[in-house]
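PT: before anyone asks, these are the final sequences, not the draft ones from last week. 736 residues across everything. Please model them as a single complex and drop the result in this thread when it's through.
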Amino acid sequence: MLLTVLSILTDGLAYAAYLFIIAIGLTLIFGVMKILNVAHGSFYAFGAYGAATAVGIYFNGHDWNAAGGFLFMILLAMAIGLVMGLILERGLLRLVYGKDEVVIVLVTYAVFLILEDMVVLIWGAQSYAAYQPMVAAGSIDLGDLVLSNYDILLVVLAAFLAALAYWSLKFTRYGRLLTTVIFDREVAAAFGINVTVVYTVTFLVGAMLGALSGAVMAPKISVTLGIGVEVIVLAFAVVAIGGMGSIEGALVGALIVGICRAAAVHLVPQIELFVIYGVMAIVLIVRPYGLFVRAQPRRI
Amino acid sequence: MSQTSSLARLSALLAVSSLAAVMAPAHAQQAAAPVKLGIVSFLTGPAAAPFGIPGRNGAEIVIESLNAGKAPAPYNQVGLGGAKIEAKYVDEAGSAANTVTEFRNLVQRDQVDAVVGYVSSGSCLAVTPVAEELKELTVLYDCGTPRIFEEKPRSYVFRVSPHATMDNVAAARYLLAKKKNLKSYSGINQNYAWGQDSWRDFVGSMKVLAPKVTVDKVLFPKVFAGEYGAEISTLLTSKSQALHSSFYDGDLEAFIYQEQARGLDKRMTMILTTGEAAIWRMKDKMPNGTIIGGRGQNGPLAPKSALNDWFQKIYTDRYNTPPTYPAYQMAQSLLGLKLAYEKAQKGAGKKPTAEQIAASFKGLEFDAPAGHFKMALGDGHQGISATAYGTYRFDKKTNTPEIVDIVRYPAECVNPPPGMEADAWIKGGMKGAKCN
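LR: through. Structure below.
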């Protein structure tokens, strides 16, 4: 029994870390810009493909340090996210700011479909492996249970990102500017805040976080066509539970989903598929705006 | 008068010559009119890399070889009955509704003579009634659901490749032969028709063949979930000695990478019913000792034959990787269609109709790179063949995957007899199985 509880906790934390790393960029962009960015799945996919390319370059024929390979794949993926974010925000999204939110969702969906085909053009239809950093990380034995050190690393990374986001929003000048824009864009502009720059920077950070999530997951998965579709659905579920645009909501949402899913797999595996969306449905019935967002009056 | 007569004769000669000049190319064109085939496979999406692209490549290389008349006998006549094959490749990706729309486009807009395709069981189930409605000859190449020909009789739809029941019956037989002291086992399969049917057939076979062996953990993660930490913990803390899985592609590879980091394969033997499709990509990452199936005698499981040597060579020369089972399944589908077409053409004395080809296809027996095929089930519309399982070993010296300790199972040992549903046959104790 103790082993089962320990397994549920460790698996839940690992899965929550995976979900939070994916969801944080999505919720940040929504919180500031009110854009439900479907193309976030493409940032994830490009990050994963970029990481697989980096791992291929770094490890093939070289006996270099694995930590260097991990760092290289993260940096390359984030660079890809930066460039993609810049092109997308400056080249397209700024043209639709102020339009109906549904229109913007459709624009990002169109971008997502185009980028799916771009993946085929750049990397082809074959799948890629980037397992070397995970293998190099090794494992630790807890009796019958064996934990991957790479999963532990992901939990640490998720905690670091959560702490960094909290600190940035609460204790830095840019964080305070961001909070002002989140609270009211027009008032922020009236106070002299350059909302356009805030938007661009936010979108770039969100895009880089999306690519980072793909990069850190690449060693665990087979990098193949369609990976962006799967994660975007999961990320939406987590963000909806926590509250759209709330970083602490994304963290709590990821923890709830992670623990519930792990418990389902260990105790009632038949409902594993249902549990994520079941939790989401229950939360939204009780709190329609998610756990960390208060209902707001609609402006007329 | 004579001048007039000469002019008249010259005019007549010119007219006849002109007519002949017009008629001759038309006649030549008629003789060489190509046979149009629609080839449908996943060209994008998660199933493209493991199945769709090898299937498409298999079609491309076989059609090229047939059109050049360079395939071994009895496939050495050019194209189909002397007419070159003109293939149109269509992506299977998208919803079932989209798949049906594309099928209708192939039949009604492009007017293809036959359609060969479909990886997903969902696509096959969606397309089959439409093929019957449009009276379009359709050869399903990869999908595994037994329901196609069990639900109702078909007139225009065929499937050379055996259905998935064979894979799991043979997996159970191989596992029990290799692990005599097996006490319990678990399963991890995708939560949709493919995974559920595979597990049902495997468990059913195990209950018949070894009733005392117990089922431990039954896991059905979402298809393309990608993250299996909790499933691996559940299996690590179980007492199972074997693990059955029909995972494929990204799911299979992700599961193997994640379980290897935690040593699951050191604790239990894995039986991967589609593992053959992954060994060339995974190489040393596929654990040694894993029991590998390939949905028939495909790839390294194929018996030695001139046809297999030919197919291995043309595929490897073109794509720099050996063909995996979807490529074999496409090849045998096209070769079966070719034989049926040519048999019908011989009977008709001209380009055969879909009905004539279907009549020839029914009950056909032929050799393909993966062995001998017999259209024995589904009133002669569903093929059966022998199958094989083996144990994986990676040769570090040559950097080559190998499947050793191969055991072959006759078609009648692992397939239900004609007229019987697969599930009922297994539950009834697999009566009539001829394994010797």
